[in-house]
Structures are given as C-alpha cells and as structure tokens.
Amino acid sequence: MASEGAECDGAGEARTLDPKVAAAIAAAEAAGPQSGQTVRVDSWIWSVRLVKTRSMGATACRGGHVRVNGERVKPAHAVRVGDEVRLRHEGRERIVIVTRLTRKRVGAAVAVQCYVDNSPPPPPREAVAPAGIRDRGAGRPTKRDRREMERLRGLTGPGGGPGSGAGGDLGSGSGRPRP
Fold it and tell me: CA end-to-end span of the chain, whole Å?
C-alpha cells in the first residue's frame, strides 16, 4: 500500500479508511495465506461473512449451492484471488469476485474489502400493514375486531370466508333436519 491509512479502489483513486479498519485489514493480511497460496471455499465464504458458520458453508457446497468460476465445488475446493464465487443462500444469489484471501473470520468492515459484490439487488420486502397490533390493556378482541384484523391480514375476503356468517347459514348443510 502507498500509505498506511489509504487504499486504492478500482478507479485508481486513494480513499482514506478508518484507522481501526486499516489496522484490522493489516492483521487479517498477516494472518492470511502468503502470496500464491489458496484457501478452502467453505472457510472463505464463512470468513467474509457470506454464511454464519463454516459448517453452513460446507453444507452449501455439498448441496451444490456454491459455484466457483461456474463450476459446482466441494467444500475443500481452493479459492484464489480473481475467482468468481456464486452462493445461493436464504433465497437470493450472491455473486462476488475474490480480491483478498483470509482464513480467519473478520469483521464486516474488513470483510467487504475481501470481495467485490456483483450480486443483483435483493428483492423488495413486502410491506405488511401492522394489523393486529392492539393497545396494551385493551383486553381481548371482540368477534368484530377479530374479523376486521383477519380481513386486514388478507386471511378472508371482503365477503367473508367459510363459517363467517355471510350468505346465511339457514338451510345449508346436508339437507337433514337438525336434532
């Protein structure tokens, strides 16, 4: 590096880093493999915080959810700088390019320095109305309140669902008189 607190981004411009982050990056580089060495893919995706545990990384590899340069890999596959790692995890696909190798799990600020994220943006979260939130001490909801909450949640339509009383229950059933 040209200076202790600066890092060069893809455009060749130096940007300053927090001194704590710069120290953590230096410590991660010192603990990482030497130049020319490799790291296991399950260990790397765990250390850069793409999965929560190393065993989850190994399970994802065994299940075919991890691809390196387009090929399905086993957990012990060697990752090198410049490799493209694709990980399907928690309903989305992460596409990252390896820029730095590390064996130890690092903090989030250091982890983002270890890869370039080319992932598509995550799908938007569904906006759910806060239905069913009641004031503390309001007591048990009445039948009318319950039906209103179910309608807001989308459990029943505006005409009501089965057993809601809409449409009349007289004369419905098996056709036999009730005892």
Answer: 90
CB contact at 8 A, 45 and 85? yes
Three-state DSSP class for 63?
coil
> Do 83 and 150 fall within a single domain?
no
C-alpha span between 59 and 49 (Å, rounded): 15
- Per-residue pLDDT reduced to its tens digit, 116-148: 999 998 877 776 556 567 778 888 888 998 888
Both structure tokens of 118: 């080319």
Predicted confidence (pLDDT) at residue 1 exceeds the cutoff of 50: no
Residues 86 and 140 in one domain: no
Q: What is the chain's percent helix, strand, coil content, to nearest 5?
A: 25, 15, 55
For residue 30, the tally of other CB atoms under 10 A from its CB is 7
pTM of the model: 0.57
The parent domain of residue 145 ranges over: 130-159
